[in-house]
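Appendix B. Extra example for self-study. Work through it before the problem class; the solution is given directly after the inputs so you can check yourself.
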Amino acid sequence: MALKIVKGSIDRMFDKNLQDLVRGIRNHKEDEAKYISTCIDEIKQELKQDNIAVKANAVCKLTYLQMLGYDVSWAAFNIVEVMSSSKFTYKRIGYLAASQCFHESTDVIMLTTNQIRKDLSSPNQYDTGVALTGLSCFVTPDLARDLANDIMTLMSHTKPYIRKKAVLIMYKVFLKYPESLRPAFPRLKEKLEDPDPGVQSAAVNVICELARRNPKNYLSLAPLFFKLMTSSTNNWVLIKIIKLFGALTPLEPRLGKKLIEPLTNLIHSTSAMSLLYECVNTVIAGHDVNGSPFLPPFSLALFLFLRFQLCVQKLRILIEDSDQNLKYLGLLAMSKILKTHPKSVQSHKDLILQCLDDKDESIRLRALDLLYGMVSKKNLMEIVKKLMLHVDKAEGTTYRDELLTKIIDICSQSNYQYITNFEWYISILVELTRLEGTRHGHLIASQMLDVAIRVKAIRVFAVAQMATLLDNAHLMTGNVQRKGICEVLYAAAWICGEFSEHLENPMQTLEAMLRPKVATLPGHIQAVYVQNAAKLFATLLKNQEGNTDRTAAQETSQLMIDRLPLFVQSANLEVQERASCILQLVKYIQKLQQKDVEVAEEVIALFAGELNPVAPKAQKKVPVPEGLDLDAWINEPPSESESEDEQPKAIFAKEEPKHSRARHTEVDEKELAKRREARKQEQANNPFYIKASPSSQKVYQEAPGVEHIPVVQIDLSVPLKVPGLPMSDQYVKLEEERRQKERVEKKKKEKKKRKEKRGGRGKKHDSGPESEEDITPAHMVDIVTEEMPLADSEKLPVRSHRAAEALKSPAEDGDAESPASQEPKKKSSKEKREKKKDKDGDRKVSVKNGNPTRETALWMYIYGAEIDIQGNLQDGSQVVVSVIFENKCDNFLKTMEFNVLDSLNSKLQRPEGSGPHDGLSVPFQLPPGVSNEARFVFTMQSIVMPQKLKGTLTFIIKDSSTHEKLDFKLHFTCSSYLITTPCYSDAFAKLLESGDLKCSSVRLEGVNMPFHHLLARICFHHHFSVVERIDSCASMYSRSIQGHHVCLLVKTSGQTVSIDAKCDEPTLLGNVLDEIKQTFSQC
Amino acid sequence: MQFMLLFSRQGKLRLQKWYVPLSDKEKKKITRELVQTVLARKPKMCSFLEWRDLKVVYKRYASLYFCCAIEEQDNELITLEIIHRYVELLDKYFGSVCELDIIFNFEKAYFILDEFLLGGEAQETSKKTVLKAIEQADLLQEVRPHHLESYPDYDCCHKEALLEVKLVLEHN
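Solution. Structure tokens for the complete assembly:
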């Protein structure tokens, strides 16, 4: 035996013990990892030995290494070995290692169950104690289940040392194995009255923790705890009991009444701050709950309130204490009170303001939190003044930023409720901009904007302040650190621009906004600068035009023209775009100025209109129109080009077109076939129909418009000359042109959309003629050429989309000034026209314009062709008018210029740089007898009303060199906005059922023509397609370029034709019906 | 209580006791974060901070920080008392305890803590009882704790008695 001990100690002399390891690690600071890996190797060797002392030593070292962050999970089994040593020394080390290293997923824990059970029942109480302590750290659900009974037995152990531990560990067992709670609870309850205070305290602890999780089950213990509370003098126990009551009172209000006295006594008597704090907290929490609407108010309210006041008094004592910890906790508790009883806190304003001066930042932050609830109209300025002082003094950026947000929070709370003087607030905001390195520039900026917009009276002052800010912008931009604050310039520039009429010295501000230094600001701020410089410019013009001296105004324009190019070169797209638009605008204005034209009114109209604040809830007050589903997609979300093709159809019928066709066949094939046959027969007999070829029937969906293209009824009396180019070439050329236009227009539309979005002033963009100039041909060209390769691939989906949508069909026509006189001539050209059209596929309606009373050198045919409504249907659509010019005289015609007087609604698109009244030169000359075609694009705002545009064509007859002028009128009828769109009867029925359409009807008397002629006429003149025809009744359908559905039901009996119509746009419908009526009144 | 950490001014962990089951990875992460946060605080600041959804209570004794994480409803002041009580126990046991005592006898420090707290709850509020239990358990053990003389090669800062310095601070 003695020998063995000697041998053991000799072994250990050569081993490193823990102290050697600690020292070794310290001595190998440079190569700690290497040293430790050799140590671990040694430990592995030691663990292989039989000597338990060596093993225990190794495990002890491992425990130390584990704390340093090394993985020792591989030694888990060795730990179990050491745990099962019979010697307390090693067992203790083993259990310590296990409690530090084991967790629920350690597998070897399963092996420990029996060992632990053995240790729990060991005669040595320290063995048992060590096992219980270890178990508390690594108890798993399995261990809890297997050992629950053993531990329960230990709760009644003779030694309090064991009882105490057993009681405490039961809590962990309950958590892991809740089923054990029921059988163990009676014994646990007994322990509340254990003679040993330690055991008693342990039982209170456990029950308190349990009750916190589920208070309901522990209400019955309240009397027992009440007794304990009044008898115990142990603060630790008292705190737990009070906490327990805090959990129980919400369930049993009567308990609150009973508690008042002992709690008040404790608050008055105790010297232990921890206990006092616990009491106060419980009272506050209890008061919250009692005051909450969930529980009926009970007679104790007043009582509680008095006690509550006592608490606040006590908190004041805490806050006044020199101990930072108490101060902090006092403020923390105060902030809890603030939520429910702001008044109680307000009376301690002085104290809380004092805390703002505290040297401890965490205390200052707590005090700041409290300030929020303490301001009133009276003290706001005073409090903010104090905060501003702190802002100046504050060292850390974090704390200063916190102060800044708090100042703004406090001032802006409940819609600036406490601010009596907004000039003061603006000054505060301006002062805050002087803060260095704050991140909250945008916060200040949004406040400035908000106040300037919402408080009208303050604008003069605000504008003056902002102008100063702009003037001193270099203070903010100079320092890189101040980056965050330059956001303020965003607000300043906007306010100065928007409310520029209040500026004292607008010229100076304009100069400040156009300084080259501005180009160093972030892009979004530059953009606002540019935009608002334009507003300012408008105001300046207005002021200066009032003067007799015109030079001032011209100088202003020159300043703009000089400075803006810097922004045109900006790398930021938005800045660039805005700057180039405004630069063009200013150049144009300058041109006018030089002609002594007064432009200020028009320029200022660009930015007219008050920006009114809108309440956040205002939108809710607008009733949603019936049948409008705000959540539904207006258009299917774009995914692939294919799905885009389906889009227009989906409006009518959800199912695949082929399916719908198949269903037709199934449901009523015979009938349908019969009808189709009848219809074919009808159409065959009808000279106005183009007969559908069988193949076209099949590809109907791909090119639905084809068979529905009505044959043009030729109204031309002039023989149609073949245009200068060979037919096919021209066709190709037209096609190319058209595609190009499409692309360009698409681009333009996108551009426009973008512009409107970021302009935030869509209206203004739309209202002025300049908005059209925004879309610059130069850009178009650039884009088209640059993106040619891409454009080719783009072409396909776009094309098929159009085809599916209904092919384009004609917006039409010019208006014959005196159709009667033209009539005979027109007729004669009928055949040729028709031929051309058939080949073309692209329908054109032509009407000759001109002055028939006079010898004219030129015939003008005006063709209409609708263009492109893809994308947003609401976005102003464009109409392309094709004009054929035919030279009827014997002289060469040149320098033709086409011009139209724009109306508000419709405008001719002109290239960039040209004014709203400039003409477009026709890109060709005409030799005698030759005709050629030119296309002009018009933009339409609204298509519900017919439009008439007056225009002139000027040209020079070569030999005579005389200027000739031809006046004409373009008549855009409502029918010309309709596109012949095929529609199946089921889709048609659905549409009618949908109930979104408004009804209207018209009666035509004395129509003396066969029914199919009548239909053909409607089809041709008004671009309808026949959906279905039964006897003397037919349903017809058409769609506007903006997507309105127009449905007609035409019935005839004798000479009376009645047309019932439905459309989602009543005005449009009314006009279309009027036009139909007119068509028939003429015959 | 969720866990207790002891670490030095240099951020070296001296003792850790976890009363909630967490993976080693999480433990390491939490330790790193907390040590950084606490060390960054200025000496005059109060002992409490809100961290994640827990409250952290810490106190510095000479070169060692004692740091506990407690839950929302727990009492910060009593936690401070627990920390102080633990330091007193260490002091009584080692006799003017210093950081080195805890480093070289870290298992003893654990044993004392385990006699004082169990499963995160105070199990014995009487200092005498705790010390008596430890002493009696030690009687069963063969190895005596190492004492200051046995680690002479250390800087004096680690030898500062935790509690005395604490008392001096209090008088200031």
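Self-check: The helical segments of chain B are 24-40, 76-94, 99-104, 106-116, 127-139, 162-171. If your reasoning did not lead you there, revisit section 3.
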